[in-house]
């Protein structure tokens, strides 16, 4: 299965038997609890593979997907949108739908960025005002 978000795989040596949940979570910048939450919420592409002992094992494709989820969350994508994105990624030939989800998110981020840039400009004006006020004293 081709992951939808590439180039995000953490640089971690994944042994043939996979990584335990603690190592996978740490590699992706998650807590173990957060990784379990992502699995419960249906955000992973597939359920984690299990070792004969029943413990979860994660492989490179899992890490790549999880790193993509972390990136999307850090950009403010809501869990419901990530869940929808994961769902379309599980289905074949849904590239247009995947693209639409990411483009809509990009548009929201760009709008937030423009708003933040406006706030930053206002702060800069206030800083300049106070700097000039201090110099005049």
TrEMBL record:
Molecular function via GO: DNA binding
Supply the Pfam families for this chain: MerR_1
> Coiled-coil intervals in this record?
none
Q: Please name the InterPro entries in this protein's record.
A: DNA-bd_dom_put_sf, MerR-type_HTH_dom, MerR_fam
This protein's record includes keyword Signal: no
Domain named HTH merR-type: residues: 18-88
Which Gene3D superfamilies does this UniProt record tie to the protein?
1.10.1660.10
Q: Which SUPFAM superfamilies match?
A: Putative DNA-binding domain (SSF46955)
What keywords tag this UniProt record? DNA-binding
Please identify the protein, giving its name as recorded.
DNA-binding transcriptional MerR regulator
Q: Which organism is it from?
A: Streptosporangium lutulentum
Lineage of the native species?
Bacteria, Bacillati, Actinomycetota, Actinomycetes, Streptosporangiales
